[in-house]
Amino acid sequence: MILHRAIAIDGPAASGKSTLARILSQKLGLIMVNSGSMYRAVTWKVLQRGIDPNNREAVVQALRDMELECGVDGMVSTVKVDGVDPGDELRSEEVNAHVSAVSAVPEVRECLVSLQRDFLKLGDVVMEGRDIGSVVFPETPYKIYMDADPNVREARREEVGEVDSVAARDHADSRRETAPLKIADGAAILDTSGHTIESGVAAALEILRGQGFAMPA
Ligand code: CDP
Ligand code: CDP
């Protein structure tokens, strides 16, 4: 089996993970995987079926009943549930409100971590989430933990008109028993509060060089 490289990007909501991962994917020719969209897709299906997202047993049964299909389209990960791409509904107010509860279910995590590791069979990846450096790819030397002031992060979500209780999600994601959000061993911290997108990307590239990531010529 060919072993490809993985860049792991973790951090709280609106710290800038997706933005950085998208740009690194384009600059470095990596497959971009948004692991959050996979947790959101499971949550979307649970809600669609009228299941209580806080009822663990019911969530596990729903997970067993659904067919999750991951793929790549133009170097960006895709996810379908029972043949349907939920699209913008992944970022609805309802999904935002319940995704942390569904993500805390160990069976959900086990299933999605396995699908996430499979992306590495396809090529070099940049994957962003909460537990990528700590659980999904603990062995990778390329790890960034992104952060930003909580007020800055709330403002970023409001700016794009998204209804999201960032603080509540961060609280739940950091306190859960299985794979909580934390700074992975070996991760470099990048605080984007005072960065523009451009200067944040430059700082990330510097970190990756320092971690020994060979840049394309
Ligand atoms: O984009 P944003 O940071 O707001 O969220 P996201 O990355 O789409 O993740 C949505 C939710 O999925 C998070 O609040 C976590 O509850 C969960 N998640 C997780 O538990 N583990 C991951 N690797 C990625 C997301
Ligand atoms: O994926 P995550 O939830 O961590 O964040 P995101 O979806 O990339 O959103 C971060 C927001 O902050 C976007 O609206 C960016 O335009 C903005 N931003 C950034 O990502 N990096 C900076 N250095 C400054 C602003």
Automatic annotation (TrEMBL):
Catalytic activity: dCMP + ATP = dCDP + ADP; CMP + ATP = CDP + ADP
Compartments, record wording: Cytoplasm
Enzyme Commission number(s) from the entry: 2.7.4.25
Keyword Cell division found: no
UniProt keyword annotations, A-Z: ATP-binding, Cytoplasm, Kinase, Nucleotide-binding, Transferase
Residues binding ATP, per UniProt: 11-19
Pfam families xrefs: Cytidylate_kin (PF02224)
Cross-referenced CDD domains: CMPK (cd02020), NK (cd02019)
Keyword Transferase belongs to the record: yes
Domain of life from the UniProt record: Bacteria
InterPro entries associated with the record: Cytidylate_kin, Cytidylate_kinase_dom, P-loop_NTPase
Domain Cytidylate kinase: 7-207
GO molecular function, one term: kinase activity
Family listed: Belongs to the cytidylate kinase family. Type 1 subfamily.
Official protein name in the record: Cytidylate kinase
Gene encoding the protein: cmk
